[in-house]
User: Fold this.
Amino acid sequence: MANQKEKAESDVKQAEEQAPEPQAAAPEQAKDPLAELLGRAQNAYSAYIEAQKEVAKGYKQQQQQLEKAYKRAEKEANNAYEQAIQEALRTREKTQQKADESYEKARERAIELYQESLRQAEEARKNTVDETMNGYQESVRDAVNARNKSIDKAWRMSQESGEQAWAIFQGGKSAEETPD
Assistant:
């Protein structure tokens, strides 16, 4: 585009330099067909030079319009870019806020589950301790009962053995037969 503009400007300058200057009031001569043809050629060339100037002017105007269109497109692209950035920031903030909310909910739920697990563990421990204590107390009662039975049995056997020994000592009389 720039090359065409430069070429057009160069052609216009060259044509202006080569164009002959219009002759001042030429004496009225007989109309010569060659002179007339030369006059028409000069007029055509002048028209051509004028057309070249118009084309160069058209190129300049087109270039200015293209520059305006480019500036307008650039401005619109920058506006669209800014809007996209702003929207991306809003989306990021919303997403981050949702992520923070989800994290808080999950954290609270985890704490609740932890506390529930801890409560259940404490309850299980208490139940185990209670069962162990009940088993211990039952074992102690059983041991006390067994001890008491063993002592009673040993006492009875001791008594019977003593009575038998006394009976043997007395010569076969039982303790019931002897006077006190």
In short: The two ends are 154 Å apart (CA to CA). DSSP finds two helices and no strands in the chain.
